[in-house]
Amino acid sequence: MTRRKSHEENIRKISKSGASYSLTIPISVMRELGWREKQKVVVEKRGIGFVVKDFK
Fold first, then answer.
1. Which residues constitute the domain of residue 25?
2. Which tops the pLDDT comparison, 17 or 3?
3. Quick check: 4 pLDDT over 90?
4. Which residues contact 24 (CB under 8 A, 6 or more apart)?
5. Are 35 and 54 in contact (CB under 8 A)?
6. pTM to 2 decimals?
7. How confident is the model at residue 46 (pLDDT cuts 50, 70, 90)?
8. 26 in a domain, yes or no?
């Protein structure tokens, strides 16, 4: 797998698996937020985008 160029680091593709969609998150963002695999998060729709927050 080739590395993305720095200006393409935040460009992602949406994948479909069954009835769900998924999106990869850059490892640098995961580390910065302290998130880990299988952690629960909350997804909220905001305008034409969305916000992903830690589940408390």
1. 11-54
2. 17
3. no
4. 12, 13
5. yes
6. 0.67
7. very high
8. yes
